[in-house]
Amino acid sequence: MSTPLKSSFLLSYLCTLPPALLSREILMADSEALPSLAGDPVAVEALLRAVFGVVVDEAIQKGTSVSQKVCEWKEPEELKQLLDLELRSQGESQEQILERCRAVIRYSVKTGHPRFFNQLFSGLDPHALAGRIITESLNTSQYTYEIAPVFVLMEEEVLRKLRALVGWSSGDGIFCPGGSISNMYAVNLARYQRYPDCKQRGLRTLPPLALFTSKECHYSIQKGAAFLGLGTDSVRVVKADERGKMVPEDLERQIGMAEAEGAVPFLVSATSGTTVLGAFDPLEAIADVCQRHGLWLHVDAAWGGSVLLSQTHRHLLDGIQRADSVAWNPHKLLAAGLQCSALLLQDTSNLLKRCHGSQASYLFQQDKFYDVALDTGDKVVQCGRRVDCLKLWLMWKAQGDQGLERRIDQAFVLARYLVEEMKKREGFELVMEPEFVNVCFWFVPLTLRGKQESPDYHERLSK
Ligand SMILES: Cc1ncc(COP(=O)(O)O)c(C=O)c1O
Q1: 275: Cβ below 6 Å to ligand 1?
Q2: Domain 131-395 has CATH 3.40.120.10
Q3: Known CDD domains for this protein (predicted)?
Q4: What is the pLDDT of residue 32?
């Protein structure tokens, strides 16, 4: 064993090492704990046990109890006072810190509460939460095998499983910080595949490009076009039918129009489970169009991807196996917890790494003592990357495919139940019969009932 090193010395010593040795030294060096923890280990343990107790009591037990509020709502000025947000030069006692933890939980929204209906995620899966707690406690980064050996292998396996559900026996992928970013990766990859020069030479090498998505798509497609320098004008908005599904004939028409205007079509982003209506675009027909025109097909299945787990409902995504890329957020319908979003690729040519890699020599040394293909960090535009696979993996281990399938099927059953109950009650107007778990409806107040014909009906109803 090497002699214990003071952490400050360890740091300056490491700075003198050649990069290839650095990684080995980090693994081997025996260092004392950081001073703040070394001060009083008993107090540290007591604090953390107390905090975990507060979390279990306040955030989990009370936070998921129907007898408690979803949120103790306060207006911003009052909340600022209650939280006493100012950061001061003097530190506070353990008791005060515990009280602060309680206040944070008290005034926060409990998204695991059975009556939390505000977003596309809710509920609390205990195994996923256990995974999140372990992830936070280990606080590692997903970029190299040496710093995340377990999670590099785990991510690979979880991605393989998700790809298999899409229908691919090989491919690539990565967990991204959310579905918006997964969508943006897809756009960047499609562009790079067609114009590899643009990585080095930038936008000046490109003709005007066009990408296509329906009017019901998620707004991240527009954001991505702006962020990637394509400009929002390059997004051609394809018609959706009355159920919110992209109209393939209009896609074909829009491609022709873009070409006539001198733009080069390169990508179609279809949506499986649109954000508002829960519509599934007709993937087979869209894939046919893409094939005819040689376009990259991306499927934004951030919301609806988890339906692939259900034998009963997976037909909604028929044709997804023909996509080049898929974005899938297990943090939404599967309740894996924020954040958990996979970008899946059919590609086996290392496109992700070729497109985003920059071979930083201090991190991705090529002479490591293991297969450096396990250093997945150069596939992404980030450096440090959160571990997002453990919560999903642990939940999947506990539930099995069958448990997760039951969960999806149950969500459909509950949506149907809600629809049937609405039909029995006065004052509820369904926007349409849902095919997914989005139930869109109007609540018609007493003063507006029976007044559908009046000219300001819709405006007043909206208000
Ligand atoms: C269809 C769809 N795609 C993408 C996203 C964006 O996902 P994220 O919030 O993880 O960025 C959403 C979010 O609601 C969505 O509904």
Answers
A1: yes
A2: no
A3: DOPA_deC_like
A4: 52
Q: Does the beta carbon of 277 lie inside 6 Å of ligand 1?
A: no
Q: Is the CB of 179 under 6 A from ligand 1?
A: yes
CA distance 368 to 25: 12
Q: What are the tokens at 66? A: 């129907």
Ligand 1 neighbour 300 (Cβ under 6 A): yes
Are 147 and 141 in contact, with CB atoms under 8 Å apart? yes
Q: Whose CA is nearest to atom 16 of ligand 1?
A: 275
Question: What band does 28 get if pLDDT is binned at 50, 70 and 90?
Answer: very low
What are phi and psi for residue 281, nearest 5 degrees? -65, 150
Q: In the predicted model, is pLDDT for residue 392 greater than 60?
A: yes
The structure's pTM equals: 0.91
Query: What token pair was written down for 89?
Result: 């030069």
Is residue 120 lining ligand 1, measured as CB closer than 6 Å? yes
Q: Whose CA is nearest to atom 5 of ligand 1?
A: 179
pLDDT in tens, 398-424: 999 999 999 999 999 999 999 999 999
Q: Using 50, 70 and 90 to split pLDDT, how confident is the model at 40?
A: confident
pLDDT digits (tens, 9 = 90+) for 263-319: 999 999 999 999 999 999 999 999 999 999 999 999 999 999 999 999 999 999 999
Region label for 337, one of left (φ > 0), alpha (ψ between -120 and 50) or beta (otherwise): left
Sorted by where each begins, the domain ranges of the chain are 1-30, 33-118, 131-395
Residues 301, 304, 309, 313, CA torsion sign: negative
Whether the predicted pLDDT of 7 surpasses 80 = no
Q: What burial class does residue 209 get, using C-beta atoms within 10 Å of its C-beta: 0-12 exposed, 13-18 middle, 19+ buried?
A: buried
* Ligand 1 atom nearest to 301, measured from its CA: 1
User: Which is nearest to 319 in space by CA: 328, 309, 330, 308?
Assistant: 308
Phi, psi of 87 (to 5 degrees): -100, 125
| Tokens describing residue 125 | 């899966």
Residue 121, token pair as written in the block: 């995620």
Q: How far is the CA of 303 from the centre of ligand 1 (A)?
A: 7
Is there an atom of ligand 1 within 6 Å of 376 CB? Answer: no
Looking at residue 212, its amino acid is F
How many separate helices (H) and strands (E) can be counted in the chain? 16, 9
Question: In this structure, what are the phi and psi dihedrals at residue 296, rounded to the nearest 5 degrees?
Answer: -70, 130
pLDDT in tens, 210-231: 999 999 999 999 999 999 999 9
Residue found under tokens 């394509």: 230
The SS3 of residue 386 is coil
Q: Is 220 in the pocket of ligand 1 (CB under 6 A)?
A: yes
